[in-house]
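Hi support team,

I've been running sequence recovery on a batch of backbones for a student project. Most finish fine, but this one hangs at about 90% for roughly twenty minutes before it completes. I'm not sure whether the input is malformed or the queue is just slow. I've pasted the structure tokens below so you can try to reproduce it. Let me know if you need the job ID as well.

Thanks,
M.K.
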């Protein structure tokens, strides 16, 4: 860990009747965590299971905090909505990025692979993070000045239909405040050369902190979709 920020790893008991039922999450105070710190958190979290529910062997082995059958569900988001609407919160955002066909599509694809949708000031992902299946991702969120939450995810699939659409999704790991999956897509409408950016997610609270602040969490999710679309549009325009 770098010495310029005070790091705090918090264990919260979710059920006082079972002291072994614990969920770990990562929060830092002070200066924004360095890339080195983010990587150490991902590495240490992977090694220790991000605070898995220690009494259950299956839980110990599971790196994701969603049900196994839900991993990759955003690949067919229509079905995900039909089967999970009452269980997860569903969010969709679609933004027009440009009307210059292949040119704007390639720009949008490059912006997406560079994580421009997360460079919002209050959220951030290391732009050097590779977009490939199995890649771990650290999403930093700044809910208050000098306070950073670090949420771990893993890219579960990357999909491309040449010159038409490019997408990838990351799924929450143990230690994320939410449980769910987030899919990002850039796509070109072949009829009119319009290029769009989409964010599609399903999620639910997976930590007491997320549960007690859930109205604020849901508001931030809505805001993120709007801000991410604006940032992608700006990235395409400026390339």
């Amino acid at each position: 860990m770098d010495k310029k920020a005070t790091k705090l790893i918090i264990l919260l008991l979710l059920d006082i009747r079972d002291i072994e039922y614990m969920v770990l999450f990562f929060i830092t105070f002070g200066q924004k965590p360095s890339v080195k710190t983010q990587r150490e958190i991902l590495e240490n979290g992977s090694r220790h299971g991000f605070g898995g529910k220690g009494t259950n062997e299956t839980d110990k082995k599971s790196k994701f905090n969603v049900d196994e059958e839900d991993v990759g569900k955003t690949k067919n988001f229509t079905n995900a909505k039909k089967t999970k609407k009452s269980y997860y919160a569903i969010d969709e955002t679609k933004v027009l990025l440009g009307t210059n066909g292949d040119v704007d599509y390639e720009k949008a694809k490059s912006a997406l692979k560079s994580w421009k949708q997360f460079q919002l000031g209050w959220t951030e992902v290391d732009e050097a993070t590779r977009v490939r299946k199995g890649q771990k991702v650290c999403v930093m969120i700044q809910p208050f000045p000098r306070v950073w939450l670090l949420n771990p995810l893993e890219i579960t699939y990357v999909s491309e239909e040449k010159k038409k659409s490019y997408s990838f999704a990351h799924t929450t790991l143990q230690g994320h405040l939410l449980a769910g999956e987030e899919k990002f897509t850039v796509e070109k409408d072949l009829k009119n050369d319009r290029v769009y950016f989409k964010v599609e997610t399903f999620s639910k609270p997976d930590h007491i902190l997320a549960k007690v602040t859930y109205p604020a969490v849901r508001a931030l999710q809505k805001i993120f979709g709007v801000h991410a679309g604006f940032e992608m549009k700006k990235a395409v325009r400026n390339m």
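--
Follow-up from support: It reproduced on our side and the slowdown came from queue contention, not your input. Residues 41 and 89 are 27 Å apart (CA to CA). No action needed from you.
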